[in-house]
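queue> pop job 88
queue> type: inverse folding (structure -> sequence)
queue> payload:
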């Protein structure tokens, strides 16, 4: 029997121990979840996932990094998450100042979209656009989505 101390407890590390069986189950469950995610989603960087159907159509239809970023915005964030949010967390200028409480979209996801769009533009030899221009276009798209519903 192989027994060692783990997190302050003596654990049996033999091949049939309950501890190892539990660890194997947890590992297998994690692998199944990753396979499920990878089937319908595409990782665009920093563990940010985009719906595969939107990812594929965005790459096909876009010819600029701003076009790609605007399209990926809808694939990364679901409609409910985008409602009532802006890219920066600042209220639109047309909104009343008293009701200016607006949540920002996730910074990590926003950064991943911009990085992916810039990298793809270089890879496909599209016109180079700055980070600020891409963010401005994404901000306009998020406001358009909020305005249409």
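queue> result:
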């Amino acid at each position: 029997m192989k027994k060692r101390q783990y997190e302050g407890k003596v654990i049996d590390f033999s091949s049939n121990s309950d501890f190892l069986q539990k660890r194997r189950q947890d590992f297998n469950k994690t692998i199944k979840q990753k396979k499920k995610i990878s089937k319908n989603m595409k990782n665009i960087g920093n563990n940010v996932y985009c719906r595969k159907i939107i990812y594929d159509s965005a790459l096909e239809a876009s010819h600029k990094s701003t076009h790609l970023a605007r399209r990926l915005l809808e694939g990364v964030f679901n409609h409910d998450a985008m409602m009532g949010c802006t890219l920066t967390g600042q209220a639109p200028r047309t909104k009343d100042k008293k009701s200016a409480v607006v949540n920002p979209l996730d910074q990590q996801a926003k950064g991943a979209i911009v990085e992916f769009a810039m990298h793809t533009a270089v890879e496909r030899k599209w016109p180079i656009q700055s980070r600020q221009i891409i963010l401005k276009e994404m901000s306009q798209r998020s406001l358009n989505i909020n305005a249409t519903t």
